[in-house]
Write a structure and sequence with these properties.
By secondary structure, the chain is mainly α. It is 48% helix and 0% strand.
Length: 63
């Protein structure tokens, strides 16, 4: 099982908190509207952690 760094876990937790509060927006600068899907929120959280340079497992191959 792959591991996330402690900072990455914290970042994902922050984003999920925003999702639960109904404050998480999708798209560039939040112009896409409010996120309604838990899966979409997790994808955004992992993406933000990756952009911050935190240790996050590589993306799965879809082959």
């Amino acid at each position: 099982m792959t591991k996330y760094s402690k900072k990455a876990e914290e970042k994902i937790g922050e984003v999920m908190h925003e999702f639960k509060q109904g404050e998480l927006k999708s798209g560039k600068d939040g112009k896409g509207g409010t996120v309604k899907s838990r899966q979409q929120a997790i994808a955004i959280a992992i993406s933000e952690a990756r952009e911050a340079g935190l240790k996050v497992p590589k993306e799965k191959d879809t082959d």
